[in-house]
Predict the structure.
Amino acid sequence: MVITKPPLGWNSWNTFGPDINEEVVLRSADAMVETGLLAAGYEYLVIDDCWSLRVRDDAGKLQADPEKFPHGMKYVADYLHSKGLKFGMYSCGGMLTCAGYPGSFDHEFVDAATFAQWGVDYLKYDYCYHPETRVGADIYRRMGLALANCGRDIVFSACSWGADETKQWIGSTGSHLWRSTGDINDSWASIRDLTLSQLPDQVFGRINCFNDMDMLVVGMNGAGNVAVTGCTDNEYRTHFSLWAMLNSPLMIGCDIRSMSDETKKTLLNQELIAINQDAAGRQPFVVGGTWPNYQDSFCIAKLLENGDIAVGLFNLSDSDRLLHFTTEDFGLAVGTGKTLQLTDLWTGKKESVKNEIVNEPITAHGCRVWRAKVMDCE
Ligand code: GLA
């Protein structure tokens, strides 16, 4: 199968970690529908690590923990599908998963068949405990081949955290997206550091093999499995804007059964989701510089399918800054008689660029993002 857009959905890990069970999954599925997340495009519900028993069954198959999932995984899949959702699960290319449950190494074909039989649509595939003698490309090619031959379309989500130069070989493995970062946690420092580590790697992202900057922490507010300090709503907006602009999958990590209005507003920003899901799938770039010629404040842009440009000014530093871009930065030479009309993607406010330059004060940890349309100068 081919995927042309970064997947959107929810994953259990950030909030629930090992405390995942059928009730949490089913009620989260309900919440995805009731809150409008599904209608906004968030279609995958992914159960992360810790769903299985510690041993395989007599036939060598993975088995769901009956205390956590009393009706089994097919039941969960059927429920999600009846709601219009798609079902994601988790395994690992090593002997064990990162939390110590059975991994899929040397069981790739039997596990792919099991997932297909259960009705799984998406597999997150981790990198812990893989044999030293196998390079990463082998680990992911093995499962890539098994999934491609399991008789069901299953999105293959590689999770080797960018280790062992993942970017150099992941495109050959059958993965549709690949974790290009270490694990996120619910703190501003984590959002900033993952972003800065990612800017040079945007050139490796492409349709059918998207860079994955890890799940969103928007709305966690310091609670849950990867909680640290929590962030302000402003910081969560910057985080969401960055992940959307950088073509990362948008996998929600907060407890969607109890989101604040502010969290909903952020996650349901249709204009930013449209930038993320733009059909052209072009690589974002840092304006006015080449990777990695940036500091902690920069302008990112992405050319869109209809001729518009997504533009964001991001200030990841701890002090307010005046940031700028010029129309020429996007190829709009002076003398064309054209300028840009900007629509602010958080407020909807429209303005046109005067004198070829936008100079904007951006607060610490803040951003402005626009959709820019080419238009005649007045
Ligand atoms: C790794 C992954 C995380 C999560 C945990 C589960 O750390 O990077 O996203 O899946 O394993 O154990």
